[in-house]
UniProtKB/TrEMBL annotation:
<dbReference type="GO" id="GO:0005524">
    <property type="term" value="F:ATP binding"/>
</dbReference>
<protein>
    <recommendedName>
        <fullName>7-cyano-7-deazaguanine synthase</fullName>
        <ecNumber>6.3.4.20</ecNumber>
    </recommendedName>
</protein>
<dbReference type="InterPro" id="IPR014729">
    <property type="entry name" value="Rossmann-like_a/b/a_fold"/>
</dbReference>
<feature type="binding site">
    <location>
        <position position="220"/>
    </location>
    <ligand>
        <name>Zn(2+)</name>
    </ligand>
</feature>
<keyword id="KW-0067">ATP-binding</keyword>
<dbReference type="GO" id="GO:0016879">
    <property type="term" value="F:ligase activity, forming carbon-nitrogen bonds"/>
</dbReference>
<comment type="pathway">
    <text>Purine metabolism; 7-cyano-7-deazaguanine biosynthesis.</text>
</comment>
<dbReference type="Pfam" id="PF06508">
    <property type="entry name" value="QueC"/>
</dbReference>
<comment type="function">
    <text>Catalyzes the ATP-dependent conversion of 7-carboxy-7-deazaguanine (CDG) to 7-cyano-7-deazaguanine (preQ(0)).</text>
</comment>
<feature type="binding site">
    <location>
        <begin position="14"/>
        <end position="24"/>
    </location>
    <ligand>
        <name>ATP</name>
    </ligand>
</feature>
<keyword id="KW-0671">Queuosine biosynthesis</keyword>
<feature type="binding site">
    <location>
        <position position="223"/>
    </location>
    <ligand>
        <name>Zn(2+)</name>
    </ligand>
</feature>
<keyword id="KW-0547">Nucleotide-binding</keyword>
<feature type="binding site">
    <location>
        <position position="217"/>
    </location>
    <ligand>
        <name>Zn(2+)</name>
    </ligand>
</feature>
<feature type="binding site">
    <location>
        <position position="202"/>
    </location>
    <ligand>
        <name>Zn(2+)</name>
    </ligand>
</feature>
<keyword id="KW-0479">Metal-binding</keyword>
<keyword id="KW-0862">Zinc</keyword>
Length: 243
């Protein structure tokens, strides 16, 4: 049974991708008021930002009981982050491992900035829950996706704003197959299909061909993970990202 906490309002970090869309559905099932927040930081795959409106509208059309809970959308220009980043997410360079062992898709400070800005907006909007799609199970080792980072950030935000924010990361301990399963648990086959067709995850922004698992190049780490997760979901298995 899905738990509800209608007394609280939530702000969801919403990129237009699979994970954030699943988190949006998760929040809509729980909270009376749910707003969304996106960031344009000069990402190479900024086509995901173009998917945000269509995903939100598809949710409204397919799930009337969630439509009345879906509130305002906020878009923040965070181009300064792209300007100071030299990564495969913000530059037309090959995706590969960096000298520190992390993939060069890591954008230093990204989630720290995202959550800090989210808390400022939530403070102004009277929302007490911040929801993000960070995950430590099938991630690429990004330190700002780790559970310890999110817990520490929650403490810092509450101290700095004298508030009682709760940082929720519903995907933290799920692999990609589990993320597909969560979508099905929340909205059945209709939500799975919405995620498959409407969302975007591909790091290089390829959206020309619709595969069984969704749009994408099929070769970048995000596409490979999404594809394996979808296939494992259909087969009733689990899949995690290889080392």
């Amino acid at each position: 049974m899905i738990r509800t906490d209608a007394k609280r309002g939530a702000l969801v970090l919403f990129s237009g991708g699979q994970d954030s869309t699943t988190c949006l559905a998760w929040a809509l099932e729980r909270y009376e008021t749910v707003e969304t927040l996106g960031f344009d930081y000069g990402q190479r795959h900024r086509v995901e930002l173009e998917c945000r409106d269509s995903v939100r509208q598809a949710i409204v059309d397919a799930f009337p009981h969630w439509a009345e809970r879906l509130g305002e959308d906020h878009m923040i220009d965070l181009s300064v982050l792209g300007a100071i980043s030299d990564t495969a997410m913000t530059r037309e360079i090959q995706i590969e491992a960096a000298a520190n062992g992390l993939p060069n898709t890591f954008v230093p400070g990204r989630n720290l900035m995202f959550m800090t800005i989210a808390s400022a907006i939530a403070y102004r909007r009277g929302l007490s829950v911040l929801v993000g799609g960070m995950c430590e199970t099938d991630f690429s080792g990004y330190p700002d996706c780790r559970d310890d980072t999110m817990k520490a950030l929650q403490v810092a935000l509450n101290l700095g704003m004298d508030s009682r924010f709760v940082v929720e990361t519903p995907l933290m301990w799920l692999d990609k197959a589990d993320t597909w399963r969560l979508a099905q648990d929340l909205g059945g086959d209709a939500l799975v299909e919405l995620v498959r067709v409407e969302t975007h995850t591909c790091y290089v922004g390829e959206r020309a061909e619709l595969h069984d698992w969704g749009f994408g190049c099929g070769e970048c780490p995000a596409c490979r993970l999404r594809k394996r997760g979808y296939e494992a979901f259909l087969a009733g298995e689990q899949v995690t990202q290889p080392a």
